[in-house]
Amino acid sequence: MKRILRTPLGLSAAVLLLAVLVLAVIAPLVWTDQANAVDTAQISRGSTAEHWMGTDNLGRDVFLRVLVATGLSVRLALLATAIGVLAGLVLGAVPVVLGRRAGRVVTAVVNIAVAFPALLLALFFAVVIGPGTTGSLLAIGFATAPGFARLVQTLVAKVAGLDYVAAARVAGAGRIRLLVRHILPNVAEPLVINATMAAGAALLAFAGLSFLGLGVQPPEYDWGRLLGEGLQGIYLRPAAAIAPGVAVVVAGLAFHLFGEALSKGFTRHTAPVKLRRTEAASAVPTDDDAVLVVEDLRVAFPGVTPVRGVSFTVGQGEAVGIVGESGSGKSLTALAVARLIEHPGQVDAQRLTFQGRDLRNGDDRVHRRLLGTSLAMVFQDPMTSLNPAMRIGRQLAEVAEQHQGASRKQAWQRAVDRLRAVRIPDPERRARQYPHEFSGGMRQRAMIGMGLMGKPALIIADEPTTALDVTVQRQVLRLLRTIRAADGAALLLISHDITVVSQVCDRVLVMYAGRVVEDLPADELHTAARHPYTRALLAAVPDMTTDRDLPLAVIPGRPVDAAQVPTGCAYAPRCPLATERCVTAHPPLETDNGRRVACWHADVPVQVGDRGE
Amino acid sequence: MTAAISRTHWDSPWLGFAVRRAGRLLVSLWVLITAAFLMIHVIPGDPVRAALGPSASVQLVEARRAALGLNDPLWLQYLNYLGDLLTLDMRSSMVSGLPVAQVIGDRLPATLELAGYAAALAFAVAIPLGAGMAVLTRGGRRRPAELGFTATSAVLAVVPEFLLAVGLIYVFGVRLAWLPVAGRDGFDSYILPVLALMIAPGAVLARIMRVEMLAVFEADHVRTARAKRLPQWLITLRHVLPNALTATVTVGGLLLGALVAGTVLVENVFAWPGLGSTIVQSILAKDYPVVQGVVLVYGLGVLLINLAVDVLLAVLDPRSTIRES
Amino acid sequence: MSLSRWVIVVSELTFEDVTVRFGTRGHATTAADGVHLTVPHGSIVGLVGESGSGKSTLARAAVGLVPVSGGRILLDGQPIDHRARRLQMVFQDPHSALDPRMTIGESIAEALPRRARDRRDRVAALLDLVGLPAECARQYPAQLSGGQRQRVGLARALAGEPDVIIADEITSALDVSIQGTVLNLVRDLQRRMRLSMLFISHNLAVVRYVSDFIAVMYHGRIVEHGPADQVLADPQDPYTRELLAAAADPAGQLDLGETSDTTPAHR
């Protein structure tokens, strides 16, 4: 609640709503008699000093009547919402309690009812129950119910499918307990938000029905009725129509905006942290033939700097792997190198050259052509990484159309040819299909095929096999290998799986908390790793040769939060070798015989820790 | 999830979709008709007496009851009602004596025109506006423009059509006296009713379009498109817009239904000679046969809109409903 | 391996010709197809297979979350009464397996037998058992790390004093540096408490590390099962061999030729 009140929108909405509610209580108590006072001397006057909104056809003060009407208008709206919410809750929650068959019938009824607009339902019920205050109250309540029931059903279904509900079932909780203890509390937030907005809508609907003469009947009056009366004389006394209209809009907005503020308040934000500059990282041995040279790369988002000075090169045809846990900055490094970080992300580097061309500045169009044809990207999730509404063939073909000036037909043929190259069976037919008609492995191969539309000098693959099964993973990795052998393309492979990286790549970069902590040849990984993190990582992951009689080595603690990186070595809190120096001073990445390591205690033997956190 | 096996047969999912969708339409239609039929029977008191007023003679009421078939057993009345509906016979008005079908025939075009223009204008303005705002403000760019748009559209989306109508009348009819405020007579007379009807749904639609576009801009496949180094306009038009449209159409259908219902209020403000003013007059006059007929027409309109949206979605989105079971 | 060669002791979980189908009529998919499997008392059976092979369905069927279309699931030869809660389950996703609005203590206490007294002490003891401080009981899931939440998941499963625990991919959502702690805990608990456990994972190396027996599932069927050493050393089924090869050498140095890719995707 405090969070909501702290935003300007939340605060003004809350104040507005409070004012409306207070007025609804007080106005009828204080001004009812004055508002009903007939003054035959003042019939149908415009704005005067005495009646600044004028008077109606019985000489009653319009402004006071609008104020007093707040009570009935708001009360009716809240009552109707309560009816609707209650009915909606019952209809929406019943499927859980009654079980599948009865639930299905209720769902079907709700589905049909929800297809009709609430106003139409309200009109229907108003006819059936008869015009008047009670009639329209029930009518609007019932008209609100189907929409609410649908909402409850959707929310309940979503929560009911979650593991903790399954866990409670397995633990022996009954249906009622599931509903009351686990499901309803977890859908309460969106329900409260929607109920608040529904109250606003009910207020407006009431005004509508009363305006039509179907709602509140004389001598009672709410805003809708005042508006209807005022409209008849709008040419002579516009204030009589405008005043209740403004009141309705303000009150409706108060409810609606408060609901919106609630929904914004409930989505949490992480606290921003100040940006901190760090010293420049050590220079990298540069290689003018290199496909990619990266020096002191930083990626910053408002409040966090997940990549903090990364330097490396990728030589012609070389395969370089980047390993690290989630949050190590490995994927952002790949995206930054490929210039795919979007606003508000900031990429900053001492040097960033691809194929000898500086990517940091220069003609955007030239860069597009270069990157579009020589840099291939493969992403983690092949399902979401392809456009679901476009045929696979078209998605490949547009690369050739855009960068190689191919005609539509030529581009299509090239696409089919590339699909064949990545061993998609029956590529002519497959090219005409949509992504959802492909299996996961085939999608990933199509993705690789897309990169092969040009002539890639570098393939950046970001966790290309994480979403795939082990047997399919092999096919994809093998395909990457074949392509490298055939085209001489270099590979930058990002993965959390140190085994995969060590087998596919020539060289491995180990990242931790946004920095490279070690850089060494892949075949030395198991024998000559020097950074304690690299060594712990290797020991912690069971492979097919791990001794089953010994406990696994573990890394105590948890990965660093990118928003709260410590001053010294980021790994120090988890490192068995850490000393005072590690905590206070960040170790530079020292180059030694082509290998690099950032540790004050590199090479010191590590005692394998047990059971951490 | 289950792979390409069932999808190689192209015609069967479409057939299944058509059968399922037609089934749902029929069930909804039956519910609608039955509700309209029962309406007259659940009303407290005698509808004929209510319509003719307390001064009417017992004989007259009895004769009218007999003429309307209200003395038959309920099931027979129901069957007769269904049978008559097939021949578009919807009885006669208790007030004017005109056949209900004729009343509807007279009034429907005005309502259709109003709703049609308003819907077309709402979509024509909202989709480009929402898409444009998304392009301009994505990734937290141009904060002031974003705030201006979200605040304005939020307010407009909340103001109900009849209030907007009153406001428009006051500004353009009363203060400026530029436009006529009542009746249906010439191009001028359309402007205010159409605006009153389209602004709120248009604002909602523009908001949704913007949010959907922003969501798609963040999607993985748009990152892929950027990795292909396509120019920004092509990414937006080819990869973002179509995927955002499908979601917008879904909501657009619901809004369209609400817009059709909104004609009831707007017609009453502008004295528009359509079904909306007819139904309110008939409810107040307790002219139930007319009410029944108009309710049917409105309900049918909403059902047809829903059907059109589902078909449109099935065509737009290769993964949509038709492929699911 | 035939079932008869396995040692039969008390409290064992048996799947007898279990079939699970989803959907209706024309659209039915068979997730598990005539599965025979036994989890002997006091041992861990590792069930390995790729996504969509039916492993999780089998787990959910055992604890009654999914109805069985054919065959029987028996505990010590008797059909399972799910109200008796003799089977408990630990779930994959540490983020969704705990009710965000309940404290850790409440979540665990809910799974305690109804007759249990001194509930607070029992919760503290269970937390201690899985290596978490007693203060955890007052915390909410959002305050814990993924690895800690999986420990809570194990504590909750143990709270019901089950005869068999089913662990469904409990390490696959964890960071590599955390996985080991959970695997060590599983082994440790099993040794100390002689638990029976069905341990499900797509990762053969992980399954190998914790299991006494290994069963391989492929397209809804158990294609191979037996003592872990035997399955690993002398795989009989071609799919098992492929899995073993892929696990030993994920990048595929050997060229087995292009296999037809019929594996459905993750989503």
UniProtKB/TrEMBL annotation, chain A:
Membrane topology: Multi-pass membrane protein; Peripheral membrane protein
GO molecular function: ATP binding
Residues of the ABC transmembrane type-1 domain: 70-259
Keyword ATP-binding listed: yes
InterPro entries per the UniProt record, alphabetical: AAA+_ATPase (IPR003593), ABC_Ni/Peptide_Import (IPR050388), ABC_transporter-like_ATP-bd (IPR003439), ABC_transporter-like_CS (IPR017871), MetI-like (IPR000515), MetI-like_sf (IPR035906), Oligopep_ABC_C (IPR013563), P-loop_NTPase (IPR027417)
Locations listed in the record: Cell membrane; Membrane
ABC transporter domain span: 292-538
Keywords recorded for this protein, A-Z: ATP-binding, Cell membrane, Membrane, Nucleotide-binding, Transmembrane, Transmembrane helix, Transport
Domain of life: Bacteria
Entry's transmembrane regions: 76-98, 105-129, 191-214, 234-258
Family as reported in the entry's similarity comment: Belongs to the ABC transporter superfamily. Belongs to the binding-protein-dependent transport system permease family.
Protein's name according to its UniProt entry: Oligopeptide transport ATP-binding protein OppD
Organism for this UniProt entry: Kibdelosporangium persicum
From TrEMBL, chain B:
Subcellular location per the Swiss-Prot or TrEMBL entry: Cell membrane
CDD domains membership: TM_PBP2
Membrane topology of the entry: Multi-pass membrane protein
SUPFAM superfamilies: MetI-like (SSF161098)
Entry keyword annotation includes Ligase: no
Main location: membrane
Keywords in alphabetical order: Cell membrane, Membrane, Transmembrane, Transmembrane helix, Transport
Stated family: Belongs to the binding-protein-dependent transport system permease family.
Protein name from the UniProt record: Binding-protein-dependent transport systems inner membrane component
Organism the protein comes from: Kibdelosporangium persicum
